[in-house]
Design goal:
Number of strands: 12
Radius of gyration: 62 Å
Distance between the termini: 88 Å
Number of helices: 13
Helix content: 55-70%
Strand content: 15-25%
Largest sheet: 7 strands, mixed
Structural class: alpha+beta
Length: about 500
């Protein structure tokens, strides 16, 4: 059976109290009367020495002292002359009054003294030894301690005291001690119960805290209100809890970062595989076309000049597309690796917009699209001019590729939160929510069949993302009423 430390302390201390009480009671029962007798013998010796020093042969001279000994010490004092005749007997005056009423009793008294001393070793007393014996008065049925010795002047001294009174006192003392012992045990158990609870309470609290620590719960702290061993232990556990919490938090953060790195590596690996697949897909068609038309030219499938020119133009177009793809891949790689640095200058963004529209005027005219511009005043920016032009051109090309029959494109230039934002709106279908985050991925196209109708490579928005992240500016796309709006931000120019 497992006992708690509180129960063990309670039983142990209660057992000690019970053992001490029983041991004290047994010692009193067996040795208290003996100790009383030993004390009385010492008292008789003290009285003998005082009487022997003050007595000169006349009892009347020290009568007051003798009476004090008799009253205070409970003694019976008898002084005998050299012939063992009584010279002084305790309460002698009281006896004289009885003699006057009842006749003389001195002979009887003298006989009592002789009867008391008849078994004593009188020869030893005569040699100057002090004789102390315990005897019994058969007439009174009482035990006495008697001292019999010779005084300096030659007289004899008999000191006598009752033992029965001492034995009764010892019995009373033992009974009272047993009663007080029971009370002591009962009250001691109650006090010990509360003291052990107060002692084990902090230990139980520390135990709960350490259990929580084992379950990685470091929210609990021990309230240190003492400097003893328990307080020092509580301080150590608090310090250990704080250190463990800090270490585990660091481990969790490191583990989280490791998982993020692993996930990042996994995504990079997937992107690498997808990139290779996309590049292979983008190059497969033009290479096949070039190969087919080149073989046709070689074997002179069509000898007329018109067909030969068509074959040559097709080869050249596909070659240009491949060249554009390779250039965009190189540009994207440089941006993502940080090789292509940004050369920021201050310029007026409206001038850039007009320049891009002018370069795209032929395409806009072919598709019969008119671009509307909404620009605030003082929209100077600090950015890389060529990279900004590339972002805007990519947005405009994307808008032209996905515009609907309304043929509406709007370019807005606004100041937003200390930045200059350019937004390009085109009328057309909304982008699905699931697609919005994916359109920034390289080679990703909204048309799942990867048709070549738009003529794009799927890298334009990826290049926008790389340029904006390199310049640490925001970009995005939103589905708005009637179409889709792409936007990007630039730093404001300070001196314009």
């Amino acid at each position: 059976m497992n006992f708690s430390i509180k129960r063990k302390l309670f039983l142990s201390i209660s057992g000690l109290i019970l053992l001490f009480v029983l041991l004290s009671w047994l010692l009193n029962s067996f040795f208290l009367d003996k100790y009383y007798i030993y004390t009385k013998k010492n008292t008789l010796m003290d009285c003998y020495n005082q009487i022997n020093n003050t007595y000169s042969g006349d009892p009347e001279a020290i009568y007051l002292d003798l009476e004090k000994f008799e009253s205070n010490k409970g003694l019976r004092i008898i002084i005998l002359d050299k012939e063992f005749k009584i010279k002084y007997f305790f309460n002698e005056r009281f006896i004289d009054s009885k003699l006057r009423r009842n006749g003389p009793r001195v002979p009887n008294l003298n006989m009592e003294v002789r009867d008391m001393l008849k078994n004593s070793k009188i020869s030893q007393v005569l040699q100057g030894k002090i004789l102390i014996e315990i005897g019994k008065d058969s007439r009174l049925n009482t035990n006495f301690i008697t001292l019999f010795s010779k005084l300096n002047n030659g007289d004899f001294l008999v000191l006598n005291t009752s033992v029965t009174a001492m034995q009764e006192s010892a019995d009373i003392a033992n009974k009272f001690f047993l009663l007080t012992g029971i009370i002591t045990i009962f009250s001691g158990c109650i006090i010990i119960y509360f003291l052990t609870g107060r002692f084990t309470g902090p230990i139980l609290e520390l135990n709960n805290i350490t259990k929580g620590m084992a379950e990685l719960d470091f929210s609990k702290r021990y309230n240190v209100n003492s400097t003893d061993e328990i307080g020092q232990l509580g301080s150590s556990i608090n310090s250990l809890s704080e250190q463990l919490e800090k270490s585990i938090l660091e481990l969790k953060q490191a583990n989280k970062k490791l998982m993020e790195d692993i996930e990042k590596e996994r995504k990079i690996d997937e992107m690498r595989k997808e990139f290779i697949s996309n590049v292979s897909h983008e190059l497969k068609t033009p290479i096949a076309l070039i190969q087919g038309y080149a073989e046709g030219l070689k074997v002179n499938v069509n000898e007329d000049e018109e067909n030969k020119n068509f074959y040559c133009e097709t080869i050249m177009n596909e070659t240009q597309k491949m060249n554009k793809l390779v250039k965009e891949l190189l540009e994207l790689s440089k941006l993502e690796s940080g090789i292509a640095g940004l050369e920021k200058v201050d310029f007026e963004v409206l001038e850039l917009v007009n320049s891009v529209l002018k370069k795209s005027s032929i395409v806009l005219k072919e598709k019969d699209v008119e671009v509307k511009i909404d620009c605030e005043e003082n929209t100077g920016v600090n950015a890389d001019y060529d990279k900004t032009e590339q972002v805007l051109t990519n947005y405009l090309c994307n808008a032209l590729d996905h515009i609907n029959e309304k043929k509406e494109i709007r370019i807005a230039i606004r100041k937003v939160n200390g930045k200059v934002r350019i937004s390009v709106f085109n009328s057309g279908s909304h982008i699905d929510k699931d697609e919005i985050e994916k359109i920034w991925i390289s080679f990703y196209k909204v048309d799942k069949a990867r048709t070549r109708s738009f003529g794009g490579t799927g890298l334009g928005l990826s290049i926008v993302k790389a340029i904006q992240e390199a310049s640490q500016n925001q970009y995005g796309v939103e589905n708005v009423g009637g179409g889709v709006e792409f936007w990007f931000e630039m730093d404001q120019a300070k001196m314009m």
